[in-house]
């Protein structure tokens, strides 16, 4: 059996894919929209040394395996593939026989784009390293991928044909309305990214807004944008750990895409710290990616841990709601926006494809390939309900008074 046929048997003969290999072999559907090309024996070494998702990712990221065609289509075609979980023993034996075991196990270095974080998990130092790995890539690169909003979280689509920019504006405005923002209030936005929520609250609601982020490049970009927008009297973004914010008495706290970086062990203290930043009657809006239930492990592993979000953890929605309830808050509203995140990622994938040559020049081909793979994979994950996006609105009670409307106003 030749290499292309071996890989086809691992992926599944029913998959609408074409396979080619460096030995000249070809298999699969020659009219398929996607072709998987094994370009080097190193691709097989990656698959052998880290069978499953991680080995496949290393082969693609290093370019020893290529995917020609739409990445999302490729991943959707391989969604039930055995090769993304574990190389079957029979297939592994065929590869070993074909190449010789010594060449198959030829040691290959870990790609330079793999994360290398040090110290105690979720310590301030290690969290800083983990955030820098993903967010301190290049502001220009993110401008191409995210578009003018520079919002790197799930958008909210007011209609099926709304643009990505409309949907990001709608997301920020939904958060503002859930928090009941009014002129003169004070907002703390933890994990604020490039300051989109901070600037929205200041510009459209007259709120004094403070954002904090562990990414130095994000903070620098946001402060420049705030000044250019004439919002410096109301808005500020600091390069700062949320645990080190000295101020208190805020009217509202938004956390949009931070909880994924906190970890299950630290979740109660995280919630209590946000509770302590609020005045009585103040509201918290927590927006984050979750597991679809509370039955799976929380730690993100494999490709996503090594390349995308080091030390990331995804909790079940019930776990998060219970932690918020049990640490000083009363939960008042919750909703799942997973379909909206799939649409958001579709927009980001298109943006990356449209700017592929510039992105490769800016951050290097390995890193651009990481983003292409992870965003398409995430889109698929939301579509098939492997992951979800939940917004939870809670209030720090004023005695027994929630100061909430009888029915939602948003």
From TrEMBL:
Keywords: Lipid metabolism, Methyltransferase, S-adenosyl-L-methionine, Transferase
Alphabetical GO biological process terms: lipid biosynthetic process; methylation
SUPFAM superfamilies documented for this protein: S-adenosyl-L-methionine-dependent methyltransferases
Xref: InterPro entries: CFA/CMAS (IPR050723), CMAS (IPR003333), SAM-dependent_MTases_sf (IPR029063)
Pfam families: CMAS
Alphabetized GO MF terms: methyltransferase activity
Protein family (similarity comment): Belongs to the CFA/CMAS family.
Protein name: Cyclopropane-fatty-acyl-phospholipid synthase
């Amino acid at each position: 059996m030749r290499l292309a046929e071996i890989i086809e048997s691992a992926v599944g003969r029913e998959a609408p894919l074409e396979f080619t290999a460096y030995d000249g072999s070809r298999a699969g559907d020659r009219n398929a929209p996607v072709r998987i090309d094994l370009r080097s024996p190193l691709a097989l070494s990656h698959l052998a040394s880290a069978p499953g998702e991680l080995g496949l990712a290393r082969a693609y990221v290093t370019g020893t395996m290529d995917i020609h065609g739409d990445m999302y289509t490729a991943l959707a075609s391989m969604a039930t593939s055995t090769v993304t979980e574990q190389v079957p023993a029979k297939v592994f034996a065929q590869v070993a026989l074909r190449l010789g075991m010594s060449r198959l196990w030829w040691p290959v270095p870990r790609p330079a784009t793999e994360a290398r974080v040090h110290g105690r998990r979720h310590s301030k130092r290690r969290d800083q390293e983990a955030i820098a790995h993903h967010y301190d890539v290049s502001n220009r690169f993110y401008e191409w991928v995210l578009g003018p909003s520079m919002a790197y979280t799930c958008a909210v689509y007011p209609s099926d044909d709304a643009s990505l920019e409309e949907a990001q504006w709608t997301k920020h405005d939904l958060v503002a309305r859930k928090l009941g923002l009014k002129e003169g209030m004070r907002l703390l936005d933890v994990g604020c990214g490039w300051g989109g929520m901070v600037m929205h609250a200041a510009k459209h609601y007259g709120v004094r807004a403070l954002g904090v982020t562990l990414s130095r490049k994000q903070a620098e970009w946001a402060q420049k944008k705030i000044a250019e927008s004439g919002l410096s009297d109301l808005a500020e973004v600091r390069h700062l750990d949320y645990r080190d914010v000295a101020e208190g008495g805020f009217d509202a706290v938004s956390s949009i895409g931070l909880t994924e970086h906190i970890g299950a062990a630290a979740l109660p203290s995280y919630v209590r710290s946000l509770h302590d930043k609020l005045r009585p009657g103040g509201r918290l809006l927590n927006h984050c990616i979750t597991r679809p239930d509370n039955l799976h492990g929380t730690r993100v592993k494999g490709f996503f841990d090594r390349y995308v979000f080091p030390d990331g953890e995804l909790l079940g929605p019930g776990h998060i709601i219970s932690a918020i309830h049990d640490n000083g808050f009363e939960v008042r509203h919750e909703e799942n926006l997973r379909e909206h995140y799939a649409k958001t990622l579709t927009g980001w994938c298109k943006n990356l494809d449209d700017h592929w040559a510039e992105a490769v020049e800016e951050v290097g081909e390995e890193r651009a390939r990481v983003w292409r793979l992870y965003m398409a994979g995430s889109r698929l994950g939301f579509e098939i309900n492997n992951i979800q996006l939940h917004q939870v609105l809670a209030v720090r009670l004023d005695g027994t008074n929630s100061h909430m409307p009888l029915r939602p106003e948003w």
